[in-house]
Amino acid sequence: MLYSRSAWAGASSVPCGILIFLLLPVCLLALSLTDTRILCAADEPSAALSSAQVEPFEQQRREMVELQLKGRDIDDPSALRAMATVPRHRFVPERLQSQAYLDFPLPIGFGQTISQPYIVAYMTQAIHPEPHHRVLEIGTGSGYQAAVLAELVEQVFTIEIVPELAESAGRRLRGLGYDKVVTREGDGYHGWPDAAPFDAIVVTAAAEFIPPPLLQQLKDGGRMIIPVGSPFHVQHLTLVEKKEGRITTRLLLPVRFVPLRRAK
Questions:
Q1: Total domain count for the chain?
Q2: Which percentage of the chain shows pLDDT scores above 70?
Q3: CATH number at residue 131
Q4: Is the confidence at residue 9, as pLDDT, over 90?
Q5: pTM for the whole thing?
Q6: Catalytic (active site) residue 115
Q7: Is residue 240 part of a domain?
Q8: Active-site residue, from 115, 142, 168, 230
């Protein structure tokens, strides 16, 4: 659900291409709003991809990991392995599959986007996932981040407020064999009390402040990664840690996410 890593992270550390992509939020959202059913209706996982189609995607995925992730500051072997495994092209509209492994977000309809690969890897790496972990994700979107997490942890609980996206993501994840992922439609601000506590929480939409229910549902010793800030000002990807009941936060990098939507 994220838009893009920001140029504010420093020109010396951000490739020129990323700076260009930061100029695209209005265009991306306008495109997704023009066709609100862009992903839900026609882009369920399909077994009809020929071997000729699959092979280029596999090559593109390997290049994504080598050039866009390893070439920067993604160095966690498990995160890199997950990014090399999950077929991102199955989580974007069919007409955009040729762009699936480029490092920028893509529209998925209903004013939402699938995050750029670098940020997905960055957020995954930040929570230090372990095989025994139970992770909560706020903002399922297309299901891509949940799939990446499912490669690394015991179980993923993911909440999506847009009914159509919640339904299609659930079907997509099940169709691709991600049985570790439990999806639910709802207001992510309140988390998932019935399944708490969680070893880690990943929030894929920007909140103006860290929701107290999520802090309560984070296990002691756990980590949360969340973009914090107004949609109209600088947002910061923030790492939250809970130790012996004490909450600490650390700003990691400036970003641009779509806002965390609330139930009316």
A1: 1
A2: 80
A3: 3.40.50.150
A4: no
A5: 0.82
A6: yes
A7: yes
A8: 115
